[in-house]
């Protein structure tokens, strides 16, 4: 497929520069958008006989570069902090929640069910069940939709969902031969057996197995896949750097304007209080151009500046049936409506989840791209985002791979990731989904929109999309 895309998709360019194509509109301030926006009068997506499920509140710890202020913590510490932040913000009674679900990717073996450990640490009742899910970068998306399923099925009325990732300390294993020897030593009954096993150890056995953000099925790192995808869709280095600069610039404006209201302050034990993301660093096109390719050398286009960075952080959301939320005196932020999960070839289409998921979720909801007021797409790499935009803008791709008569269409950039994204805010793998959904809810309120769309790619060639509807003000 890659060779076909290389020859065919060159004509589907998004343009030489986002800034050139969209001009100042792509950097419009929220104040300007509010002045222009009018409350929509579109139909609601409520259906007779179908329970309305709402997002009551969402919070997250500041997302920090791995190896910085959170470096001495453990994953459940961050998850516990997010849960405590949610409790503080909502004042929900600790025994009023029916279930807790957390997403994570790289598990700490000591706290493999991090949802349970964090819930107990946060002071939730020990009678509340909790489990942990993993689905790569859409793990907290899965946590949220699992919560929606429990409520829709009548099993629960109130569920806390969230996600956590802690890249400052990831498990590093001994080699398999060394692990087998150590397990055998543990079972050895005589001194002779122990000495024999110790004598079998060779220097090569001591080499550690280092973790990597790579596909097990293809052995290819995600950065390498992003570089190939960008090449296949003709995404230039200039376009990628331009998009990354846009993300950092918008995030900086949102942070300084106090728009990132889901971020809670967190007193790190033995350290300072942290109250904002620390990866937002607007640079310049000239400085970004000096960086060397990070994965495919020397001719790759993916660099440290146009990729999301290794991040520590946690998020949490309170999801309820609308009836329960109103009975408890809450004013919900948004309705959680239709959602889909998709999956495709993890070799050539690893990061195209948004392109596959977007038309499917719009069809389920009975909406078109033009009905969407707020778009929040996960930014794994600038090249990945741009490749998805080009795929969505291609009749050929729509006909060949999506079974459509024409293209999906491209989200307008004046509605797209206006408060920054994963490239600038950070991407704790398991926690990003909740950030996306909470951001959509907040943006809908600020901008006077009615419908928002979240979309994300994930390892394994999987993807997710969800439609969110603003709650009546």
Topology diagram in text:
Blueprint: H1 2-8, H2 18-22, H3 30-36, E1 53-60, E2 64-65, H4 75-90, E3 99-103, H5 114-122, E4 130-133, H6 139-152, E5 158-165, H7 176-187, H8 191-199, H9 222-232, H10 237-256, E6 266-267, E7 273-274, H11 285-289, E8 311-321, H12 322-327, E9 334-343, H13 353-365, E10 374-377, H14 382-392, H15 395-401, H16 422-425, H17 432-447, E11 451-458, E12 462-470
Parallel strand pairs: 3-4, 3-5, 10-11
Antiparallel strand pairs: 1-8, 1-9, 2-8, 5-8, 6-7, 9-12, 11-12
Helix pairs in contact: 1-9, 4-5, 7-8, 9-14
State the main characteristics:
ten-stranded mixed β-sheet; single chain; alpha+beta; 17 helices; Peroxisomal Thiolase, Chain A, domain 1; 2 domains; globular; 473 residues; two-stranded antiparallel ribbon
What features would you describe in this structure?
The protein has 2 domains: about 400 residues, 3-Layer(aba) Sandwich (Peroxisomal Thiolase, Chain A, domain 1); about 30 residues, no CATH class. It has 17 helices and 12 strands. The strands form 2 sheets. Strands 1, 2, 3, 4, 5, 8, 9, 10, 11 and 12 form a 10-stranded mixed beta sheet that branches. Strands 6-7 form a two-stranded antiparallel ribbon. A hairpin with a 5-residue loop joins strand 6 and strand 7. It is globular, with a radius of gyration of 23 Å.
The string of secondary-structure elements, in order, is HHHEEHEHEHEHHHHEEHEHEHEHHHHEE
The backbone outline, from C-alpha atoms, is globular
What is the CATH architecture annotation of the largest domain?
3-Layer(aba) Sandwich
Secondary structure tally, helices: 17
Low-pLDDT segments, ≥5 res: 6-40
CATH fold naming of the largest domain: Peroxisomal Thiolase, Chain A, domain 1
Q: Provide the β-strand percentage band.
A: 15-25%
CATH superfamily of the largest domain: Thiolase/Chalcone synthase
Q: Please identify the top-level CATH class of the largest domain.
A: Alpha Beta
> In whole angstroms, how far apart are the ends?
48 Å
* Overall residue-averaged pLDDT value: 91
Instruction: Give the total of beta strands.
Output: 12
- Portion of residues in helices? 25-40%
Tell me the domain tally.
2
Radius of gyration from CA coordinates: 23 Å
SS content category: alpha+beta
**How many strands, what sense, and barrel or not for the largest sheet?**
10 strands, mixed
């Amino acid at each position: 497929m890659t060779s076909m895309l290389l020859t065919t998709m060159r004509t589907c360019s998004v343009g030489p520069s986002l800034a050139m194509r969209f001009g100042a509109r792509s950097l419009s301030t929220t104040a300007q958008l509010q002045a222009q926006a009018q409350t929509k009068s579109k139909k609601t997506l409520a259906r007779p006989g179908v329970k309305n499920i709402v997002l009551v509140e969402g919070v997250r710890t500041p997302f920090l570069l791995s190896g910085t202020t959170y470096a001495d913590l453990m994953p459940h510490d961050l998850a516990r902090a997010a849960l405590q932040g949610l409790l503080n913000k909502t004042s929900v009674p600790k025994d009023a929640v029916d279930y807790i679900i957390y997403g994570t990717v790289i598990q700490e073996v000591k706290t493999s069910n991090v949802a349970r450990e964090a819930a107990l640490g946060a002071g939730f009742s020990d009678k509340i069940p909790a489990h942990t899910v993993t689905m790569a970068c859409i793990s907290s998306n899965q946590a949220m939709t699992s919560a929606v399923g429990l409520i829709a099925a009548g099993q629960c009325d109130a569920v806390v969902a969230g996600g956590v990732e802690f890249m400052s300390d990831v498990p590093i294993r001994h080699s398999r031969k060394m692990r087998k020897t150590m397990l055998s030593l543990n079972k050895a009954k005589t001194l002779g057996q122990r000495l024999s096993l110790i004598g079998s150890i060779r220097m090569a056995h001591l080499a550690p197995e280092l973790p990597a953000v790579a596909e097990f099925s293809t052995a290819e790192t995600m950065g390498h896949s992003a570089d190939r995808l960008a090449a296949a869709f003709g995404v230039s280095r200039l376009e990628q750097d331009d998009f990354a600069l846009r993300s950092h610039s918008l995030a900086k404006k949102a942070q300084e304007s106090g728009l990132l209201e889901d971020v809670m302050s967190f007193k790190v034990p033995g350290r300072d209080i942290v109250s904002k993301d620390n990866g937002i660093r607007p640079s310049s096109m000239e400085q970004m151009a000096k960086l060397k390719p990070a994965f495919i050398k020397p001719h790759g286009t993916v660099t440290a500046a146009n990729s999301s960075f290794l991040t520590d952080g946690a998020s949490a959301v309170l999801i309820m049936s609308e009836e329960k939320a109103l009975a408890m005196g809450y004013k919900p932020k948004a309705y959680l409506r239709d959602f889909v999960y998709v999956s495709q070839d993890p070799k050539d289409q690893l990061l195209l989840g948004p392109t596959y998921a977007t038309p499917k979720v719009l069809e389920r909801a009975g909406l078109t791209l033009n009905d969407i007021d707020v778009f929040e797409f996960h930014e794994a790499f600038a090249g990945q985002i741009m490749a998805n935009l080009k795929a969505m803008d291609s009749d050929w791709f729509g006909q060949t791979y999506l079974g459509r008569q024409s293209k999906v269409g491209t989200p307008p950039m004046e509605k797209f990731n206006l408060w920054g994204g994963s490239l600038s805010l950070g991407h704790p793998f398991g926690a990003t989904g909740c950030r996306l959904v909470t951001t959509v809810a907040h943006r809908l309120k600020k901008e006077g929109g009615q419908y928002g769309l979240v979309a994300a790619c994930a390892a394994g060639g999987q993807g997710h999309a969800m439609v969110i509807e603003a709650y009546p003000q």
